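Structure first, sequence second, as always.
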């Protein structure tokens, strides 16, 4: 499990266009990685659309964004096209990246327990070190939540 001050190890995955994206491509850049449980579900759509709406503000302060779920490349493309996302969505069907970050675990919904992605956001600096980990993501206000955290550290 990765936490604040940990250096993120390199990983790679296919984005919604089937292109291989390497974490090392972002060396020297600030990055927000958000893990979401399932494309095209209400909470994931609310979170991703909030980040889409706040994208220009986040870019203006130097951040890139990557969304990651266990959905297929095809599902990521459909989700991205439906909602006009200006950032990459990575497909982690084998949960390798989720396990690196420690966001695959036990969940409970309507009394049933199952394994899934724990909605989590990581804010990473230019040196690939985690500076913030958000475990209680406000889906409808995800961008605002990130900006508030970043503003409070100034």
């Amino acid at each position: 499990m990765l936490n604040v001050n940990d250096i993120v190890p390199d990983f790679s995955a296919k984005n919604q266009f089937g292109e291989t994206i390497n974490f090392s491509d972002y060396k020297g850049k600030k990055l927000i990685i958000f893990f979401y449980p399932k494309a095209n579900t209400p909470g994931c759509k609310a979170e991703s659309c909030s980040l889409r709406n706040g994208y220009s503000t986040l870019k203006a302060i130097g951040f890139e964004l990557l969304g990651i779920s266990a959905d297929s490349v095809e599902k990521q493309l459909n989700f991205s096209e439906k909602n006009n996302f200006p950032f990459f969505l990575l497909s982690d069907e084998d949960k390798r990246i989720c396990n690196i970050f420690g966001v695959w675990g036990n969940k409970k919904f309507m009394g049933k327990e199952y394994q899934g992605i724990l909605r989590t956001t990581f804010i990473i600096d230019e040196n690939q070190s985690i500076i913030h980990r958000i475990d209680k993501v406000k889906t409808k206000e995800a961008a605002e939540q990130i900006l508030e955290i970043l503003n409070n550290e100034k």
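Margin note: The mean pLDDT is 96.
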